[in-house]
Amino acid sequence: MTDADADVSTSLPPAPERNVKLTLEYDGRGYCGWETQKNGTAVQEVLERAIFEITREHREVFGSGRTDAGVHARGQVASFRSGKDITMRKLRLGLNAVLPEDIAVVAAAVVPDAFHARFSAVSKTYRYSILNARSRHPLERHRVFHFPQALDVPSMQRAAAALVGTHDFRAFAKEAHRRKNCVRTMLEARVEADGVRVDVVLRGTGFLYNMVRIVTGTLIEIGIGRRPESTFAQALATGKRVDAGFTVPPDGLCLESVDYPEELAPIGDVADG
C-alpha cells in the first residue's frame, strides 16, 4: 500500500453510530440482579464486557428495569449505541459465543435513535410461578416456589381483580418510604392454574421494589384463607405494609416481556430466533 493509499484509508470517517436493541433471556440465580453494583456480579456488567469483546467499544447498556437478585428474565430488553459496522446476526452470534451459558441474546435489532430500553417502555409483564403440590419437583427447582398447602385459586382470581387500575402501591413495596411516588398503573392481574402449577401474571406500567413478590405472597395468604378477598382494597387504601402478605422468594419470578410504542419498532437489521 502506498503512502497515498494509507492517507486515504486513515481519513475515512468513522461508521455512523446506531441504536441497538437486545432482547435477553437469563437465569438470575448466579447474579445480584440486572444493575451493576458492588456486592456481586450483575447481568449488566457481564453484558457490557461481552459487547466490548465483540465490538471493542466501551458502551453503557441500559436495561428496561432492574430485576433483583435471583430473578429470571425471558424478555429483558437492553439498548446501547454502537459505531461498529456489524450485522445484527453477527452481533447476536458473537455475544452468545462469549456470554456465559446462563445469559443469552435471543434477538438484536437496529431501532430509532429515540428508543431507550427503560424510558421508552410502556408496560412490563411479570410471571410468578408456584408449584402447588405436596411433593417438591426437583427438575423445577429454582424456577418455581414450592408451596404444598392447597390454594383456593378462584378466590385468588377474584381478589386479584382489585389490583387493576391506577393506585398507590406503597403497601406492596419494600422500603416504600424511600420513594416519593408509589403510584403505578396495573393493566392486567390474573391468576392461572394448570394442574399443580399456579401462576400470577401482572402487567403494568411500572413496578416497585419487591412489588410482584409481595402481591404474590398476599394472594397466597388469600388462597389459604389467612386473609379475606378484600385484602387488596384495604391495603391500597391504608398504604400500610402490615396489611399486605409476605414476600415470596425470587426463584419463581420471571420478567416475561416489555412493550414499546409501535413508532419505536426496529427500523432495519433484525436478528432473532
Shape: globular
Structural class, by secondary structure, is alpha+beta
Which regions have little confidence, pLDDT < 50, spanning 5+ residues? none
Mean of residue pLDDT values: 93
Proportion of beta-strand residues: 25-35%
The CATH topology of the largest domain turns out to be Alpha-Beta Plaits
Sketch the topology as an H/E string, one letter per element. Answer: HEHEEHEEEHEEEHHEE
How many domains, in number, for the residues?
2
Biggest sheet details: 11 strands, mixed
Name of the top-level CATH class of the largest domain: Alpha Beta
Q: Report helical residue fraction.
A: 10-25%
CATH architectural designation of the largest domain: 2-Layer Sandwich
Cα-based radius of gyration, to the nearest Å: 22 Å
CATH superfamily of the largest domain: Pseudouridine synthase I, catalytic domain, C-terminal subdomain
Query: If helices are DSSP runs of H or I spanning 4 or more residues, what is the number of helices?
Result: 6
For the record, give the distance between the C-alpha atoms at the N and C termini, rounded to a whole number. Answer: 42 Å
Number of strands: 11
